[in-house]
Automatic annotation (TrEMBL):
Residues 15-38 have a biased composition (Low complexity). CDD domains: HATPase_RsbW-like, PAS. It holds the Pfam family SpoIIE. NCBIfam families: sensory_box (TIGR00229). This is SpoIIE family protein phosphatase. Transmembrane segments: none annotated. Keywords: Hydrolase. InterPro entries: Bact_Sigma-Reg (IPR052016), GAF (IPR003018), GAF-like_dom_sf (IPR029016), HATPase_C_sf (IPR036890), HATPase_dom (IPR003594), PAS (IPR000014), PAS-like_dom_sf (IPR035965), PAS_4 (IPR013656).
Amino acid sequence: MSEKPAGADIPEETVGSQVSPVSQGSSLPDMSPMSSMSAVWQSSPPGSIYDYIQVASFALGSDGRIAQWSERAAELLGLSAPQAIGKDPVEAFVPPEYQETGHRAVADILDGREWTGLVPYRSPQSPSGHGIAEVYVMPAQDEDGKRSALCIAVDVSALRGLETDLASSQAVFGQSPLGFFLFGTDLRMLRVNERFAKVFGRPTEEYRGVTPHDLLPRGEADRLAAALRQVLDSGQALTDMPLMGQTPGSTDRRRWSVSLYRLHSGSGRPIGIAGLATDVTGRRRAEQEAAGVRRNLALLNEAGARIGTSLDLETTARELLDVAVPQFCDLASVDLYQGLLSGDETPPGLADGSAELRRVAFASAVSDGPVAFGDICRVNTAEDPKPIQVGEVHRYPFNSLCAHALRTAQVRVVPGRDGSESLELGAMLQSTLVVPMVARDTVVGLAQFSRTKGSEPFGERDRALAVELAARAAVSIDNARLYRREHERALILQRSLLPPGDPEAAGLDIACRYLPGNAATEVGGDWFDVIELPGHRTALVVGDVMGRGLRAAVAMGELRTAVRTLALLDLEPAEVLSALDEIALGLGTPGGSHAGARTGSRALARGGQAAEDSSDLTEVYLATCVYAVYDPVTRRCTFANAGHPPPVLVEPGENALLMEVPPGMPLGVGGEPFEEIEVELPDGALLALYTDGLVESRDHTLDEGLQALRAALDTPEGAEAGNAAAGSLEDVCDHVLGTLDTHHGEDDIALLMARVQGLSAESVGDWRLPSAPQSVGRARELAREQLESWGLDGLVDTTELLVSELVTNALRYGEGEIRLRLLLDRTLVCEVWDGGLVQPRRRRARDTDEGGRGLQLVGLLSAGWGSRRTPLGKTVWFELALPDGQSSGPDSVEALLSLW
């Protein structure tokens, strides 16, 4: 052959020498791949190891020639029996260069010595045509007693493959980080590796012959035995089977994951079950931790979405319990400080935790009614704890755990009671978390979370979660409390700035409505007012401060107060608006300065923006206002307007009309004069004053809103509300608000309606007297006669005395003709007119003075008095309350004596 023989790399002295298989195995490479080994294994019944390594046998006779030749030898060496029998084995299949050594080896064998060695041979199955066989020769004798030999030959490549496979299997079995174990078909353990022994806590030698019941608790052992039998019978592998138990000498519960598969022989016969076991206690614990974290995060996410949706304290408490039960605990309750619920800022005992609390919410997944769980803290002993009912006000004793939690703002754990104490549900509780509800470093209440026995106990993560849930609810509750406090204050402010619900005025029927644009605060800048003026006259005011909310309400309050002050001075409507304009101009500037505000106010009033160089302008207050004064005697009404929508007048039998009142500039612009007009109003006429929120919104323009208002007031006869001028005034207000778009929420709405009912001629006494001393007596006579005709005899003496004082002052300090007028409505009003411009001034007379006590007497005997300018002079008036049959009024004699 041109190629070097396969045995050429083997030293000559090795062939035919006695060597051990181990030493030979270390010097030869693996000449057969694993895939080839698998193919031979699967196709060689009955599956013995000899089948796997293909052991060939032959015999040598006493002459050193082949006497017997097996079929395996023929397959391995490529020579048939006829070709081999009778041949010299060395010459038959040993390469020529090794034949000399081979002959010496055969001679030694025939001398009776055993021999083991590696022999090169010609192999037709090998791709190179050569192979190496490991030959074991045993001396023997034939029937004649002559020396012979029995030879066994194994292909080195198959042998070395088997050695490699065994070494690999041993390495995997012994060095694997996983626990390997083998069970026989009798379900007894055959072998385990060191890792398995370490996992289950026993030496490896103790596992041979053990059963599952020797390793695991009964229930788990039954499961493992059934799984082994199932895998052995079906051949189907089983993966990740969970098992639980304890290792020897430990009380900790361990968790293992076991995978099983069936083992087969080369012929496919089941010979046992192999398995892998992994300790997953740490992984399981980590999974539980992660699941707990995910569950808590989901619960917190749900809490963020569900807690605090309302600004109601009780609703927020119930939302907390809806989240906590049953996802977090089995029972829960919320107690809030009674003082906080009632509006007190610092309830007594809040700092030491002994203040009164009210149970505002309770929830249970195991009971329909309240139980005594953490409530055991509210009594001094646990002998007879009584459940706290929802709505009940109670206290926790100073030395109780609940009071301690309230004092320190720290979570406390109340352990469950022994179930043998009572059959009530409270004895079934495992533990209770007492969690103070803290918001902005202030404790507002107490939340209690309980779990029943059998549930997982509260852990540190549960404590942290309970604190977080309680804190979220506490912040929402505190926000609700602060909102309610501010809301109540705003309402108090708003209500104090508006007239009473049923204002009264002489000669007028009045109905009014106020709808805040902001339903949350219920405050705004719109206002209306009904002011009684001297002479039974009435001032009707409707105004609108630009802006919304509390800021606009404060500005409105300042303007309303100013209007009332100016109205009591009895100024003309145009003069009142001019003074209001100056006041509004100075509201938003430091020190009330008007210079910086004037430019910005005018720019805003015209729809623009204030100049950038108006750095001294801090705030601009603009307002619109309509001011009307109605005199029931003359039935005339004087109007002045400051940029406000025009009043609407509905006369009996006529259509509603927009009154042509000069609009003027809004208040706060400054420098613009206001005009006024005087209109005579017939009895039964309806006057409507309103703000722009009633007639203007995004959905329609101001003109469209005004037309809708006129249509609502000009209801055709036979419609639901009837004729607006003749129907009930309250019904007319409701009809207008129901017809127009009043729920847009864009602006406040104020509506003031007045139906004119002037004073009848029988209720008015009017006389003119000359500027002469005898007019004093005449005035007394006229007053007496008029009061007697009205049936007011009880007021005659007082009225005569006061009339004489006013007429005397008119003669002494006034000028021209004197006019005396008596007006009867809800009160009696007496007016004395003269042409003088000097206003009377009340002063305190000394004991030695002979005069100067007239106005003091008027002030003592009347319900009110005053003076006002008129176009031709002044008017001094006083007012007396009508007798009610129970009191006789002030005693004139006593009043006179009190002056000295």
